[in-house]
Design goal:
This protein has about 300 residues and is α+β, with helices and mostly antiparallel strands. It folds into two domains: about 1-125, Thrombin, subunit H (Beta Barrel), CATH 2.40.10.480; about 125-230 and about 245-255, no CATH class. The chain has helices at about 5-25, 135-140, 220-230, 245-250, 290-300, and strands at about 30-35, 40-45, 50-55, 65-70, 80-85, 85-90, 95-100, 105, 110, 115-125, 155, 165-170, 175-180, 185-195, 205-210, 215-220. The radius of gyration is 22 Å and the shape is globular.
Length: about 300
């Protein structure tokens, strides 16, 4: 909760930021704002793929925001940026490619020593149908979710017609858990919600709410899943998103045939994963860039032809 004066100051900073940095340099961008005490931290991404961090600390009051650091690792427009207490997380439009950096702090403020260091690089692949609507995107936003001072997560829904979600750490992409519909129905939308703790002083509990094709809503305890994943006796997690086998099972829910006859070939076609690259004319419902990604993955796993 902030005072009216602080919100007015914040509005003035945002106006200065827009006029000075954004209008002339990056007409399309994603912004993350951090307010703590009497300093402000802003991270934004540009159409060219750059990620910039701007700060205004108490010692610079009276001056405009100062450019703190620039990261030029993405090759596509940046669509999401989050600056948390420990990490800077950015996502670009190329298959939701995520890059993260550790952010060192001294007395709560971002520090230049030893400087931000790369943490992880991974993708939150989400294949969309050709006739996807805006409401679908709004109800299936993958995140990141979480407060700036808490562990943030991504929720990955690989294909539109699926009964499972992959919950992953936003900092490194590792899998926290796999959510599977209890009744096998398709998950049509989801969101992450926080509820205040029942005990005085207890931290809010986080839940994932999933909506299903039959009109039901299922509720999942995310806080407990995070606590279990942090236990030292848990095996080291190396898997993040779906494995090759899990991806094939997910694609079994997709129509990969362009046949319009009354008895189409079973989908996916057995030849699609039996040692050949997916042909463009063999796919009817997936977007061309999704097909390109599947071909790339197949080639990387050695499934492609010559």
């Amino acid at each position: 909760k902030f005072s009216v004066a602080l919100w007015q100051y914040y509005a003035a900073i945002c106006s200065t930021l827009t006029q000075t940095y954004l209008q002339s340099k990056c007409p399309r961008f994603a912004v993350s704002l951090g307010l703590s005490g009497n300093w402000i931290e802003i991270a934004y991404g540009t159409r060219s793929g750059s990620v910039r961090v701007i700060v205004q600390h108490p010692e610079t009051v009276g001056h405009g925001p100062q450019l703190f650091q620039t990261f030029t690792v993405h090759q596509s427009p940046v669509t999401k940026v989050t600056l948390s207490e420990k990490f800077l997380i950015s996502v670009c439009s190329e298959y939701n490619h995520v890059r993260t950096w550790q952010v060192p702090r001294f007395r709560g403020m971002i520090s230049t020593q030893p400087g931000s260091t790369p943490e992880a690089s991974f993708k939150i692949v989400s294949l969309e149908a050709v006739d996807s609507t805006f409401s679908y995107s709004a109800g299936n936003d993958f995140g990141p979710f979480g407060e700036q001072d808490d562990e943030q997560i991504f929720v990955q829904k690989v294909v539109p017609d699926t009964d499972q979600l992959y919950v992953r750490l936003a900092s490194n992409g590792e899998r926290i858990c796999l959510i599977r519909s209890v009744d096998g129905t398709t998950i049509t939308s989801f969101c992450v919600h926080e509820c205040e703790g029942s005990r005085m002083g207890s931290r809010p509990r986080r839940f994932i709410l999933s909506g299903h094709c039959n009109g039901a809503i299922q509720m999942w305890d995310l806080t407990t899943a995070l606590e279990i994943s942090k236990k030292k006796d848990q095996p080291k997690r190396s898997v993040g998103g779906p494995t090759a086998d899990e991806l094939i099972r997910e694609l079994d829910q997709c129509d990969l045939s362009n046949s319009h006859c009354s008895t189409p070939c079973m989908s996916p076609c057995p030849s699609a994963f039996s040692g050949s690259i997916i042909e463009p004319n063999a796919v009817g419902r997936l977007k061309p860039f999704n097909v390109a990604f599947l071909n790339q993955s197949a080639a990387a796993m050695g499934l492609g032809g010559p």
